[in-house]
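[agent] plan:
  1. take the single chain provided in the ticket
  2. run structure prediction with default settings
  3. attach structure tokens to the ticket
  4. add a short note for the reviewer (M.T.)
[agent] executing step 1
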Amino acid sequence: MEQRLKIFQQFLRFLLGLLLLQCINLQVFHFSYYRKLSDQNCIRTIDLGIPRGKIFDRNGRILAEDKTCFNLVYVPYDLKNPEEVASVLSSIFGMDRSELLTQLNKKSSNPFERRILKRSLSQSEIAAVSEYAFKLSGVFVQAGLDRQYTLGDGAAHLLGYTGEVSQEDLDMLKDEGVKAGHYIGKYGLEKQYDEVLRGKSGGYQIEVDARGHQRRILKEIAMVPGNNLVLTVDQIVQEACINALGDRSGSIIVMDPRNGEVLALVSKPSFDPLNVRKYLVSPYSNKNPFLDRVIAGQYAPGSIFKIITEIAALESGEIGEHDRIECTGSMEVGDRIFHCWKEEGHGWVDINLALPFSCNIFFGTVGAKLGVNKILEYAKLFDFGKPTGIDLPGEKPGNLPSPEESGGPVNIAIGQGAILTTPIQLCMMISAIANGGNLWKPFITRKIVAPDGKTIKEFQPTLKKTIFISEETLTILRRGLKNVVKFGTAAGASVAGIEIAGKTGTAQVAQRELGLPTRGAFACYAPADSPSIAMVVVLDEGSSSQAARIAGAIIKKIYTAEEVRSETTISETQETQTLPSGSQGFE
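[agent] step 2 finished; step 3 output follows
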């Protein structure tokens, strides 16, 4: 009996020893961990989000800024009945119940952290949430920040949008104070300069009772606003481009040819930066609304490329100013027939008429004399096939093919074959013609400014290179570009009192027997003798004459401060340029 008592006492001592060791382990070695859990259970942090800096145009007009709003949030730990909450919220907001339930049941690394369900609630929605609060345990209305864009979808590809941080983003930004539920730049300038625009989050630390109800505020955490951006963009020019392009699919880029400053950038179809999810599904997604056609749309340049062919021909001495070539409407090259856009032909023309009339036979013949290598050599001088380096994410390089893959000198000479360019590249080229051969790097951001108004960084124009073009060649070319608008293929672009120089280009998307549309473009600068703007208009469906008229409407708005009138806006029902059938029937 005595032996059993001793064994029992030893067993009790062993258990008490284990209990003591565990107490030491919990209270000493794991003190911080359990203190944190305790604090999270009774101390909550209400995060009001990360404030972002403002984005201004060149004249100080606000293009993007944060506004105070009210968001619907929930705390995963406090949800008692997710099924009931999902049903109630579904009836209030018209949201899909199954999607809500999936969101509410989503596992969280911190169950005490508030997560956003819906942003920018209306007054009626706030009232409805208050009315059904007894059924919405763990759900609250909380003040927050909402990003607002002055021009809506009209500047979406330029400014971009913000979106909730993903797990991949969190892994990269965890040391920068970014948490789940925070919004960061996802596209456009918002993404390019996210680190600059992003401030530091703020909010409140509060004490809650066992039911999660707020008892008192322990401390306030001040928000630190982000830095502001001042752009080279002019809101007036941007709006003129938005209105002139209308609902057409295409793009417009306007630059200052004297330094590379981007004055406007428009791409359509566009998207609402405040409702991005809508454009991720059909039918909106079918139109590629997130493709910035200015920097990532890769097109055959069409007859705009004849500028390069003319420079190569005149500079190499392959033709003289008054050398004439007969255009009968078509030419035979090997076993293929190449057509001019004018079926009956232009007759005998020299370079002074061939450029304004955009004669394919003249430039095709000149291209055959030059050879592919010489044409590509001059195209390379203008940096075709390379990104321009504009400060926007997602730029594409286009394609400057090898001589073997080019499609031949006749094709290349008139901007067809395997060559692909972006509108921003064409704008760089026409800017270089306007300024005498300087290839400026396009840029959108002029300076970064602290919240107190102090300039942190100012961006200066960057001269990439200077292309030597003789004064004689420039004189002939510029005269031809003026005549394109005076009496040539871009006569519709003319504006009283303002001389415009430019070049049209139309290409077939596919063979015309398939009934597919043409793609029209116009590259220009104005005023012709002292250029302060260069512009490229590209229409995914339309003629070059339509593109020219749109450019003329914008120039009229810029230089005459008149509203873009209805007569300068191209009718959607206007018949597009008719091209003859065949493999190369385009202007």
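[agent] step 4 note for reviewer: The CA atoms of residues 8 and 408 lie 100 Å apart.
[agent] ticket updated
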